[in-house]
Amino acid sequence: MKNGQGHKIVHAITQWGPEATGSTRAAGLMRIGLGVIALIRFGNELAPYAINGLIGLSLSVLLFGFAFTTILGIRARLSVAGLGATIMLLYALGLNGVGLVTWAHHHVYLLGMACLLLSLCDCGKSFSVDRMRALATQGRVRPPAEFGALLGQRLIALQLSALYFWTAVDKSDWAFVSGQRLEQTMTWVHSGRVLEFVLHWPALLALASIIVLVVEYWLAVAILLARWRPAAIAVGLAMHISFYLLLPVNTYSITVIVLYLALLDPAAVHRFIDRMLGYPEVAR
Questions:
Q1: In a domain, 126, yes or no
Q2: Whole-prediction pTM value?
Q3: What is the pLDDT of residues 166-178, one digit of tens each?
């Protein structure tokens, strides 16, 4: 009996992760989104006009080369893996004081790791030069299916859950719950600006801090549960849009929003795009 239950558990895990397959359109959209975000985040810092020396030139070539091939979907899995490795290299350089201090930030780590995980998906089977080549080879009579491995998409969902949990743990102290940390940040960002009046409402800042803490703990669980996921996505989108509008979070919010594609049913994303393009619906 125990062996039978263990076999069922292992089978369920492998079906959920290593053997997971489905439409690759969501993965293709994530690939394009992450490539664009990488250019926005590092483009000014690694453009030829901003670099010095052989190391800077090498980083520039790697970043721009892999970012553009990732967006275009040329050898997509290899390209997005190379982009992820390059971003993680920038993160490591920042940690060791070789690159910019801003590279040693968990937002950079999130972006780099997401690229590496996405390389475990067949992210080049949709919206890519790879697909154009496959169509040219196989012909349009029987076009190659936009269907493939989705292990990376599952792992990105776990990455988001871990992100919410550990950021909530980091906020679980009196300085945050009392609103002091948020007040310090808001003072730095909004002093002398249109939202400066918020600083005169410390109770509001404390309430906002508590809400963020509770929501992040809840999201860590809710995004993994099918029943709660629609509400979790709506709440998460509202929270990250608020972060983007009120705080200098750089590319963090848009990165998480793009990664929310990993939480959606791949077949539902496929059907939605078919409807947008006016294609007849096909059961998937």
A1: yes
A2: 0.92
A3: 999 999 999 999 9
